[in-house]
Design brief:
Shape: globular
Structural class: mainly alpha
Number of helices: 11
Helix content: over 70%
Number of domains: 1
Order of helices and strands: HHHHHHHHHHH
Distance between the termini: 31 Å
């Protein structure tokens, strides 16, 4: 695929914006960059362009702060269930309309945000039964990745309730995201769906993403845990609204 100068500028700006958001929150790179790039290409091309930059950003986020293996050893089993859920979700995508899942996910997020600030439901069961709830969250996250290409919300809910530090949340989320991208890349290769030119263009874009990411990380290092969690909940609210809009448009 050939890109005009304007299209390349928009792609670079999308990469930069995604990088600064991801650096600040530790999440959000593909969530921000994909819809912007899709404006000048198509969704599949946007995803392919972002494969290498996303994995580069994930790896940089995983290694930020060091000692990431501590949290990986603690939650390794979730990666297995993400893989299982993703396989099932991708398979079901062939048979079912994924649009209703967007509304379901939005409702789950809004329900969590509401009950988190009230006494109507105690989410401490996540901490009391970390393996069982983790297996469920991993399966749901993987399934949603396969059907609506969104993994983050259920994982944020789980790891936030497990009272992980902001750094630990960032590291384990990015491990989960990276595993998802590896699976996605393998699927593209197996189906012969990789656009080689788009992949080649994405290599220098990865450098841009990493450079901008560092600026975002410098912002994150200046905020406290309470502020970080508040911003994270804000991101969930935005995602819920976007999902509802996507559902209504797709009806």
């Amino acid at each position: 695929m050939e890109f005009t100068l304007i299209e390349l500028i928009i792609i670079i700006l999308a990469i930069a914006l995604g990088g600064i958001v991801h650096g600040t929150l530790g999440i959000g790179f593909p969530l921000v960059a994909t819809p912007i790039i899709a404006l000048v290409t198509d969704v599949r091309t946007a995803i392919i362009i972002l494969l290498i930059p996303t994995m580069a950003v994930n790896i940089a986020s995983i290694f930020s702060g060091g000692k990431f293996m501590d949290v990986v050893k603690r939650f390794w089993f979730i990666l297995i269930f993400i893989g299982i859920g993703s396989y099932i979700g991708t398979s079901m995508l062939v048979l079912l309309d994924p649009n209703p899942f967007r509304l379901l996910l939005a409702l789950v997020i809004l329900f969590y945000l509401y009950t988190r600030n009230t006494s109507s439901l105690n989410w401490s069961f996540v901490r009391h039964y970390p393996t069982v709830s983790g297996a469920g969250v991993g399966s749901v996250a993987g399934y949603l990745a396969g059907t609506v290409n969104i993994t983050m919300p259920p994982l944020i809910i789980y790891f936030t309730e497990m009272r992980l530090t902001p750094l630990q949340i960032i590291q384990i989320l990015n491990v989960c995201f990276f595993m998802g991208k590896i699976t996605q890349t393998g699927t593209f290769i197996a189906r012969g769906a990789l656009d080689v030119q788009s992949v080649l263009i994405s290599i220098p874009l990865s450098i841009v993403a990493i450079i901008i990411l560092k600026y975002g990380i410098s912002i994150r290092n200046r905020i406290d845990a309470a502020t970080y969690r508040r911003w994270l909940m804000g991101v969930l609210k935005i995602i819920a609204v976007v999902l509802v809009v996507q559902f209504l448009v797709g009806m």
